[in-house]
Amino acid sequence: MQRPRALITGASAGIGAEFARVFAANGYDLILVARRDDRLQALRDELVPSGADVAIVVKDLALKTAAKSLHHDVKQLGAPVDVLVNNAGIAYGGAFSAMDTDEVSRMVLLNAGALAALTRLFVGEMVARGSGRILNVSSLAAFQAVPSMSLYAATKAFVLSFTEGLAEELRGTGVTVTALCPGLTGTDMVHDITQRGSSAFPEIPSFMIADVKAVAKEGYDACVNGEVVRVPGIANQMSALWSQTQPRWLVRTLTGFFGRQALRP
Description:
265 residues; alpha/beta; 50% helix
């Protein structure tokens, strides 16, 4: 039988690399996409002995034409994509007014624009076949405003809302869409944010940072089971529930207070 194939963006490190490992362990062939060729090569070398056919595509998805270019590259491979994992994303911490405008554009294009474009390019083929799964990596930050990371939280709120709406649009087509909303996870990106600036991002206790392998496994399980939203971890689930059941002014006031404290020099 032909093995199913998963396309994973942002696959060179963190949750993306763990997604590659868990999909390969469950019988999937892979198309791995990221900017860093050396890391993709190393990951492919690691996974090929498991029996997975692994193709790599070096691509910066923050570029406006990258989604169409990637879709073309995948078509050239001649194999259908059964699972699309939109994992690529970036985060910058600190005051929005201090962000470089190029960083603003890059975050919006990568976290939201590329995700939506890739979904559009592949979902039609899935619907035509009557089967397919899409896994979009959102964040716990999607459930409330996060002063000191306002734009990042907004892009992840887009991912969550987009996923829920599209999941309902596709009901009955055989195609499912899942949003994975992890809290702080032990990735390079989280490490970089917490180490950038002294008082803005104080050291976070290790017990508050989730294991990246466990998060990726939860995302895989939610995806193959066709769940629409998965929030890993009881504490994160309680946080998401609290923010959804309280008045917006209260959530905003509390997050605003702590956010302003974090931004003080």
